[in-house]
Amino acid sequence: MNEQTITVTASVLEENVRTAFRAIGTSEASLDAVTRALMHASLLGVDSHGVRLATHYCRMLEGGRLNKAPVLSIDQRGAAAAVLDGDDGLGHYAAYEAMRLACDLADSAGIGAVGVRRSSHFGAAGAYVLAAAERGYVAMATTNADSMVPLFGGAERFHGTNPLAFAAPVAGGDPWLFDMATSSIPMNRVLLYRSLGKELPEGVAADAVGATVTDPHSADMVLPLGGETYGYKGAGLAGVATLLSAILTGTTLDPDFIAMVGSDDISTPRNMGHFVLAISPDHFIGRALFDAGMLRYLDRLRGAAARPGTSVMAPGDREWRERDRRQAEGIPIDLDTARFLGFT
Question: Where would one find the signal peptide in this protein (predicted)?
Answer without folding.
Answer: none
